[in-house]
Design a protein that fits this description.
The chain is mostly helical. It has 7 helices and 4 strands, in the order E-E-E-E-H-H-H-H-H-H-H. The protein binds zinc ion (ZN). Zinc ion (ZN) binds next to loops.
Length: 191
């Protein structure tokens, strides 16, 4: 029998491989998901159950709504909720660019195509991204907020609320992220 240790909020609980354990809360976003067997993201700090649940939400979004304009904000909200400890360059990049995208969208009214163009420019070359200190706790909302939406209007509205909650969670980092976005745009104007 293979025994493994559950990560998350029940670090001392042991379970047998193949059996479904009690749901656990993701320490990064607070979503309570089944502790399933399966992969987790290579650098986002998500539990396996949380990552699987978000995959299901994205598959459901695609099946029901195609590729809605709000998709990008959903990705930003999830990624910005699941920053790691900053030791992995990809983790630092993810936190920075998705917070910059949230800032551009929520504070400046950036459009979905504009957001995509911003992320493409930010990731076009390997830049040195700083580690942004994550506040304690978890955002007020997580992906479960959008999972139960009955139609695209509700999904879009709830995704906006979720993204705003994640951006608010990062309030100590707002000046830094705004400066990074402004510096990036100034640099672009000089090119
Ligand atoms: Zn999570």
């Amino acid at each position: 029998m293979v025994v493994r240790r559950i990560t998350g909020n029940n670090p001392g609980v042991m379970q047998s491989e193949g059996k479904k354990a009690a749901p656990v809360a993701c320490p990064s976003c607070g979503a309570v998901c089944d502790d399933i067997d399966g992969p987790t993201h290579p650098y986002l700090a998500a539990t396996r159950g949380c990552w699987a649940a978000f995959g299901a939400i994205q598959a459901d979004e695609m099946a029901r709504f195609g590729y809605p304009a709000i998709h990008g904000l959903v990705v930003d909200a999830y990624a910005a909720s699941h920053g790691g400890d900053g030791t992995d360059r990809r983790d630092r990049q993810s936190v920075c660019i998705h917070l910059m995208a949230l800032c551009a969208t929520l504070e400046r009214g950036e459009t979905s195509p504009g957001r995509i163009a911003l992320l493409q420019r930010l990731t076009a070359q390997p830049l040195q991204w700083p580690a942004v200190d994550r506040p304690d706790g978890v955002p007020a909302l997580n992906h479960t907020h959008v999972a139960a939406a009955t139609d695209l209007d509700e999904y879009t509205h709830r995704a906006g609320e979720w993204a705003s909650a994640v951006w608010s969670f990062w309030v100590p980092a707002h000046p830094r992220i705004r400066n990074m976005l402004q510096a990036w745009e100034s640099h672009r104007l000089r090119e």
